[in-house]
Design brief:
The protein is about 15% helix and about 45% strand. By secondary structure, the chain is of the alpha+beta class.
Length: about 375
């Protein structure tokens, strides 16, 4: 194996591929990054790959290949080296049991791992359609807000991705909050009806990493009719002058039926400047003890926030609010409330209530008297207020 490649092109591809490396690999070779020099996508170049039996990442890039071959080296070490190289062409070759990397006057020698022990990467499943990379990235960032982080409840660490005709719906919940994001895409078949439970972290990392291209192709292979069990999902896009591909195994288990949790009617609806509310929640929550709520009281065109207790520090702040319906006083986990508010991209936020003991539904709105944007909705359970 011997090739020459531009430093920025290599560094970008190595960093993108190495991001999928496991923190604690179950076998030493899984910490490796596979470098293959040859013909890919109809042209001479490189293919870089990582795989931990759950998630795979592959990047193809153009390079001047003088000798075909393959080598397996430490992925994190190679990423660190590439990030520090001077802005000059990079040459790599195999010399015995080592890979030599030369860039200007810098020269590195890396020990190779047994490439024959490296697992075979999964094939990309069937492509189901394409979506704008920027739209997809924003949608995923909003959807994963409510995803669980408790590995004891693995189903809740995923995002349910529902493909129905020309629309995609993403649902996530950790039992205390629920996010729903809907967007349109271009399916390969107009009657597509499928679903997948995708690990939230992989989905978020992939969407963010593929934002450089114009489109993302979504590929899906499910082993069950509901799509929530066996199978893999794949994402492909252009970035850094080459093609990037990621696959991951779908999570096992049935995602809870959460759509019915969104109420069909509301008794109190309040609209508030989002930036002002975010700042107020941050300030007032400074005195909120751990696991205690920030109180929100809506009355006569005013939202009053309170936190703390009489024996300790207390805080109170008021904001103008457009309130329709009954007065209401409730409380929420301030961190969860801020997560929902910051995920909304509109200048104003609508908070819709049925009653104080029921969840609130947050959505964005462009003006105090405009229509709410229901493409993204964030449902948050209230917390008990201290008397």
């Amino acid at each position: 194996m011997k090739f020459r490649v531009e430093r920025d092109v290599l560094a970008d591809a190595v960093a993108w591929t190495a991001r999928a490396l496991p923190i604690r690999p179950s076998a030493p070779v899984l910490a490796g990054l596979l470098i293959e020099a040859g013909s890919f996508e109809g042209a001479d170049g490189l293919q870089l790959s990582t795989f931990d039996y759950e998630t795979s990442a592959r990047a193809t890039l153009n390079a001047d290949v003088s000798e075909e071959g393959r080598a397996l080296v430490s992925g994190r070490l190679l990423a660190d080296i590439c990030r520090s190289l001077p802005n000059k062409p990079v040459e790599m070759s195999i010399e015995g049991p080592k890979v030599t990397l030369t860039c200007g006057s810098a020269r590195f020698s890396l020990q190779t791992m047994p490439v024959e022990d490296y697992p075979t990467l999964p094939q990309m499943p069937e492509a189901r359609g394409t979506v704008s990379s920027s739209v997809f990235s924003h949608a995923v960032a909003q959807a994963v807000t409510a995803a669980g982080r408790d590995d004891m409840l693995p189903v809740l660490t995923g995002v349910r991705l529902e493909l129905d005709g020309d629309s995609i719906a993403m649902l996530a919940t950790d039992r205390f909050r629920l996010s729903q994001r809907e967007l349109t895409w271009s399916p390969s078949a107009p009657d597509i009806d499928s679903a997948a439970l995708v690990p939230a972290k992989v989905l978020a990392d992939t969407a963010k990493a593929l934002v450089g291209g114009s489109e993302i192709s979504i590929a899906l292979s499910t082993g069950s009719a509901g799509g929530a069990g066996e199978g893999i999902i794949g994402f492909e896009g252009n970035a850094g002058g080459g093609i990037r591909r990621t696959t991951t195994r779908l999570l096992d288990g049935d995602f809870p039926k959460v759509r019915s949790l969104f109420p069909s009617e509301h008794l109190t609806v309040a609209r508030v400047d989002k930036a002002g509310l975010v700042d107020s929640v941050k300030r007032v929550s400074l005195v909120a003890e751990r696991n205690t709520a920030v109180q929100l009281a809506f009355s006569d065109g005013v939202l009053t926030l309170d936190a703390g207790s009489g024996e300790e520090a207390m805080a109170s702040e008021s904001l103008e609010a457009n309130v329709t319906g009954d007065d209401i006083t409730t409380g929420f986990n301030p961190a969860y409330l801020l997560d929902g508010l910051t995920a909304i991209e509109s200048p104003f936020v609508e908070l819709a209530f049925t009653q104080a003991s029921k969840p609130v539904v947050l959505s964005g709105v462009d003006s105090l008297d405009g229509e709410a944007d229901t493409a993204f909705r964030y449902l948050l359970m209230p917390r008990r207020l201290l008397s």
